[in-house]
Write a structure and sequence with these properties.
It contains eight helices and 46 strands. The chain is mainly beta. The strands form eleven sheets. It has an eight-stranded parallel β-barrel with strand order 21-22-23-24-25-26-27-28, surrounded by four helices. Strands 3-2-4-9-6-7 form a six-stranded antiparallel beta sheet, with no helix packed on it. A five-stranded mixed beta sheet has the order 39-46-45-41-43, with no helix packed on it. It is globular and about 95 Å long.
Length: 731
Amino acid sequence: MPKTDFNDNWLFEGRDQVRLPHNAVELPFSYFDEKVYQRTFTYEKTFDADPGWAGREVSLHFDGAMANAQVSLNGALLTRHKDGYTPFDARLTGLVKTRGNVVKVVIDGSENPEIPPFGGAIDYLTYAGIYREVWIKTAPALSLGLTKIETPDVLAARKTVTIATTLSNPQNLALSGSFRATLRDADGQEIASATAAVTGPSLTLTLTNLPNIILWDTTTPALYTLDLTLDTPQGTDTTTTRFGFRSVAFTTQGFALNGKPLKLRGLNRHQSFPYAGYALGRAAQERDAEILKHELRVNMVRTSHYPQSTHFLNRCDELGLLVFEEFPGWQHIGGATWKQEAVENVRRMVRRDWNHPSIFIWGVRINESQDDHAFYTQTNAAAHALDTTRPTGGVRYITDSELLEDVYTMNDFILGNEEQGGNRPRTPLRPQQEVTGLTHSVPYMITEYGGHMFPTKSYDQEQRQAEHVLRHLEVMNAMYGDPQIAGCVGWCAFDYNTHKDFGSGDRICHHGVMDMFREPKFAAYAYASQSDPSDGVVLKPVTFWARGERNIGGVLPLIILTNCDEVELRYGTHKPKRVKPDRDRFPHLPYAPVIVDRRHFTDNELGLWGMSWEHGEVAGLIKGKPVATARFAADPVATTLQLAPDAAVLGRHEALRVIVRALDQVGNKLPFYFDPVAIKVEGAGHLIGPSLLPLRAGSTGFWVQAQTIGSIKVTVSSDRLGEQTLQLQAE
């Protein structure tokens, strides 16, 4: 089914020519009024009919618009779509003039209480706009509709694929013709095929006895494609769908992927970005998946709290990053109309994404909501009716909640309770049965922890950041030590903009292990360090190496996040100290941190430690050999302005992230360097956001949006550190 880009030359609010995806209001980084986008906005586009559309079905396909969209053509209403997170079509067949057609889209950014997730307070922003792509789709009058691919018995020696396809037949034509399915490997080589006659509105085929199939998993995410061809008197229609062979299972003893136990270690993600809101396209969405997989080195992500971009999900498929996907909502459950829309949201989510091998569980309970037996019976039934291959989960934070889902998924914020008047000692996680109130064990996973219990800014004092690190480590250690817990998903990967009711008063929730530009805080390395050294050595001392940054002073205890066997600490000319990971405190982590403290020094050495401040060096060793080194200057000074783009080449119309860092003489980021930098973009792209940015914790970031094919020159200048330039290429 041909699909054509329809994103150029939209007239926004009757005045601005824009390209989609588009954010209706560009918000500042912080301290704004989020009500500025909570109103209606209009988009219009004038177009002529393509002669090739004659005799074919023609529709507009919207990947997503926030929210309550109404689409009209030449003044006649075509369709309405309330849900801001799933796709929808507007049929144009028979309504298009030869010239001068005007399609108009009205979207409502207000928090309409009849539409999930609205009706109560929500701890994130729902940026108004047509923030995902729009396409023209053309097909024969009888064409392929939704296709669901399943892979039963993947552990059998010979594999099977089942295919179920519905036909799109808006003109109610007589059915005849043939249907063919061809399975291909990653190189495009045909593995198997089958053909069936068209005898009804639903078509099914099964490919059996498939040899040499590689299973999709987190280390070898093998993908296959299924080519479908429909031949009818109305013409030929084709589609290609990518999928993987894999099985998932939760039991009272954890999670298994393809029959093998796997501890799930993940983070939650919001799909928002500074200034651009939701409206960054494929490259930025894919980059987030890459950051989660390769930099944070988690094996799963939760799409809190709504279905996210298919670009993101596609990249998770390619990378082997498991996805917990949930439908829109945050604590509030509305009335009958609201609930009906929410159940439809579940169906739309499952239908859109059921062929992604990365998705291993559906979230069918409004995040952190109260029990509602009738409503959640419906949401579970909706998911199970459409997909029997994946379990359901229901994210809650209230103990003793009714379990209607397959997996009891819990936001456990007990760590930190002792600071808020709790009557129990510091506890990373509660025992399962204390949470569930059940007398027996059930499949169980932790879906949030940390976050608002200990918000941490990238420029916070070193001791607070060290405590931030310990809290994430303690929960992961508890998870790894309890075989009944399938996994844990920290709150959260990236800081995000929010409503006035949440965050630090600046309209930011500083809950991430990375900031909004995806720059790591120390806690990011708590996750990265749990990966095997074959994926890359991690060595991150949790320190700014300053004598007076901590209360009283010094750097002890010094946490070193690493997957090395041991570390060696050198300080000035003093004798080196070799210290092994702290297995006593963190016995269950794959890679415990090294903690250097008073145990490792004599009283005389501690005296010398504080007499003068000297350079420091930490080396990571594996099998006795140094494999990584971190160096610290006793007298750091601002020395280098570093530009770090995600790539040198970007696709036409895509956005590319550039990080700016102020470094000292040994290459470390200066944590309390806040000077501004001026940014200039020339050529085939433009800057997203302001042209003058302050550094926060020694860094900042921005996105360059390609406008056309050609070269892009980026210039970043600092009064103190001079000027740096980048040459990028849009292709």
